[in-house]
Amino acid sequence: MNKHGEGRRTFLIGAAVGAGAVASARLVTDSLAQTQKQHKATDAPPTTAQSHAHGPGHGAFLNDDDAATVAAFTERLMPGAPGLPGALDAGVLNYIDLALAGAYEDLQDFYRRGLASLDAYCRKTHNASFVQLDAARQDEVITALEQGKVTGFTWPSAPAFFDTVRTHTMEGMFADPIYGGNKDFAGWRLVGFPGAHPAFTPADMLSKEAFAGGALIGLQAQAPMRRT
After folding, report:
1. Closest C-alpha among 176, 180, 167 to residue 27
2. Is 218 among the domain residues?
3. What pTM, to 2 d.p., does this model score?
4. 197 CA to centre of own chain
5. Is 162 within the bounds of a domain?
């Protein structure tokens, strides 16, 4: 993992811990409640979102080409390393795909246009798609996006596209797994979040030590409890 990857990993982990991104992930999951329905519709006929995608659908919304680009982009934002999960390990692509077919469906055109502009820029500048570039070149492109130094972006602007994908990468890493990301609690394990336990004892609440009172659990495990 190069210095750009290390820097992005440090930034995202620091944001998750220092800014309470894990706590805000619970709020994110509430706002994405309707996305859960997509998990139950994998065998259903194509949705409206799929019919609007320009080509064979990857899953809920993204087609195969766009899914590959999002997967590569998010992995460079949150790259994996030996013993440390990255965006691919955590299923960030699945999270974004489901969100765009659900709670974030108003961002479908934003993503379509952003991904098309990204592809056009890479082909014009490097004679290859973003996915075909090596990691170092991908990092150069992402840095140029962040700094607004790429050409061909109108709406969304390059920085706006970068910021949105980065935000969704963080959500996919640290939101409750019920919404399609944070696979096997990869993000929570990374930052030492103890999981969505239904109750903590007074001693747990006062302790300054990391909670170690049980296995990681998410909202899915608590669903029967909430219905009673």
Report:
1. 176
2. no
3. 0.73
4. 23
5. yes
